[in-house]
Design a protein that fits this description.
single chain, alpha+beta, elongated, transport, CorA_TM1_TM2, coiled coil, transmembrane
């Protein structure tokens, strides 16, 4: 087997990310996230027959029942494990080996045959060729072999599951984007299997390309938006040419004393971006980092590769929250300075998304904690010294602590954005309440104007001797009404602590003489206008005389 170390396509692959069309993340199904649940994908309301007489095909075509008898055809159908697999495109496997070479860990691309080294397209007809490829023995210096699976098809799923004895929960959780993490097939001193499925937030520039084919994992088109429900799984445009959407890291690792294998599932590609190839390029860049080279040199635990790829999710979270920060600042500007109350719905939608991000960041934290606490059983073998095991565990705790501190920083930033949104929403509601109060005040003033007239009419309509003697004329009514109206206006203005007549915190005596102050304000401008005219007219008379 030849090994190629050419890197010419790495940077080019990363620059093509902007042309991809974001996808809608399916709603996760937490009910069936891990094998620890006793009734996976079962209908508990229906009595199930425990006697299974189905003849199991022991070849790879019989997966998952050839490895896990409890996964009957009914459960497989309920889980939609095969239904959500790619049907239009053949699977593409991108290979990468992490090799020990002269005290240096090298990230190389093996030549698996074909026109493109390190890339295998599994045809829909000749499937045994890929199955035979999985049976080949590896060179002894390979520490980890990584398979990046793009466009997962049903035959490839069956072959990978059979070859590496993978719990079907890895495929169901990956296809449903269900956050999960678990350990299975534990063998002390020999190895185990660990799985992490982690949705995360990602950003990219909006694409102007025509809509491409949908993925079977997509419940609906990415740009479909309902007017009644807040779809927190749908992509979100920040208004500055960027879109925030969900992606997923679905990684299964076989840790063993002899061979270590990592399998990563990637949703179907869209546009020009190939997620599997892009992730392989990022892992190759990890091999060029001197910091991580020192880590790989100090410890032979392949779990550090698992930890390294989680930094990719953290980077995407960081960039997405940067865009959200600018978007929230723009919304604040429009609300606080422009009094744009119509944005209250946008604020509410963004607040709902931030609450969902809180749950995803918590899943991120739990995933890192799971890696920290789930030690590699293969490191307990006799081939690893106590000193190497102690140093490796200490290094793992240190790196997990570094990642957890960064996740905590992201959570604190998300909390800050949520608090700022809440303050803006409170301010918006305060503006609405103030406007309502002003309207009610206008209605009150209007009522005050008509109240004396209505009161006087009621008095004049009373059948009493003091009034019913012919004195209730229209002139009397007008006089009483005007007097009561002026007295009412005088009392209302005097009792107000601040209005257009007197300033704030004026004393009661100052407020009591407000009519005099009002007359003074009216007379003073008139005096300034009339006196100069009077003087000019007097001067003209004297001259003519």
């Amino acid at each position: 087997m030849k090994v190629s170390t050419k890197r010419s396509d790495i940077s080019q692959d990363i620059t093509l990310r902007g042309a991809a069309l974001p996808r809608v993340a399916p709603d996760p199904m937490h009910l069936h996230a891990a094998p620890s649940r006793p009734w996976p994908w079962m209908n508990l309301d229906v009595n199930s027959d425990l006697t299974d007489t189905t003849v199991v095909n022991q070849s790879w075509q019989g997966y998952p029942q050839n490895q896990f008898r409890n996964w009957t055809p009914d459960k497989v159908q309920r889980s939609k494990m095969f239904e959500k697999c790619s049907k239009d495109q053949p699977s593409t496997i991108y290979w990468m080996d992490v090799c020990d070479s002269e005290n240096v860990v090298r990230f190389t691309i093996p030549d698996m045959g074909g026109n493109d080294p390190g890339t295998t397209k599994v045809p829909t007809k000749d499937l045994n060729q890929f199955w035979d490829m999985l049976q080949h023995n590896r060179p002894e210096n390979i520490r980890v072999r990584w398979l990046f699976v793009d466009d997962l098809t049903q035959p490839v799923l069956r072959m990978l599951g059979t070859k590496y004895n993978i719990e079907p929960f890895f495929f169901t959780s990956s296809l449903h984007w269900t956050p999960s993490r678990y350990q299975d097939t534990l063998r002390h001193g020999k190895g185990d299997h660990i799985t992490i499925v982690l949705p995360f937030l990602q950003s990219q520039q909006e694409s102007r390309s025509p809509h491409t084919r949908r993925s079977p994992t997509d419940p609906k088109a990415w740009d479909s938006v309902t007017d009644t429900l807040i779809d927190i799984q749908a992509p979100f445009s920040t208004g500055d040419g960027h879109v925030l959407f969900f992606d997923v890291l679905a990684i299964h690792m076989v840790r063993d004393v002899e061979e270590n294998t990592i399998i990563s599932y990637h949703p179907e590609s869209k546009g020009h971006r190939t997620p599997a190839k892009h992730l392989r390029s990022l892992i190759q860049f990890v091999g060029e980092s001197m910091y991580w080279q020192r880590i790989f040199g100090k410890s032979k635990d392949p779990t550090f590769l698992f930890l390294a790829i989680l930094w990719y999710a953290l980077r995407e979270w960081d960039e997405s929250l940067d865009l959200l920060f600018r978007h929230v600042s723009e919304l604040e500007l429009q609300v606080l300075q422009l009094d744009n109350i119509s944005l209250i719905n946008d604020l509410h939608v963004l607040q709902a998304r931030l609450l969902h991000y809180q749950s995803l960041l918590h899943d991120f934290e739990v995933a890192v904690t799971f890696i920290e606490t789930t030690s590699n059983p293969a490191m307990e073998s006799h081939e690893v010294t106590d000193e190497e095991r102690t140093d490796s565990n200490a290094l793992m705790k240190k790196e997990c602590k570094n990642l957890l501190s960064e996740i905590d920083r992201l959570e604190r930033r998300r909390t800050m954005l949520s608090s700022r949104l809440k303050n803006t929403m409170d301010f918006t509601f305060a503006i609405v309440n103030t406007e309502d109060s002003r309207r009610m005040q206008r209605f009150t003033y209007l009522t005050i104007v008509f109240l004396p007239a209505s009161f006087t009419a009621s008095i004049f309509g009373m059948n009493v001797i003091e009034i019913d003697n012919g004195t209730q004329t229209l002139a009397h009514y007008m006089v009483v009404t005007v007097v009561l109206t002026l007295v009412t206006i005088y009392i209302v203005v005097m009792l107000q602590e601040q209005n257009w007549v007197h300033r704030r915190r004026a004393t009661l005596l100052q407020r009591a003489v407000w009519p005099i102050r009002l007359l003074w304000w009216i007379i003073l401008p008139l005096q300034d206008m009339w006196v100069p005219q009077y003087r000019r007219s007097s001067t003209v008379i004297d001259v003519t005389a």
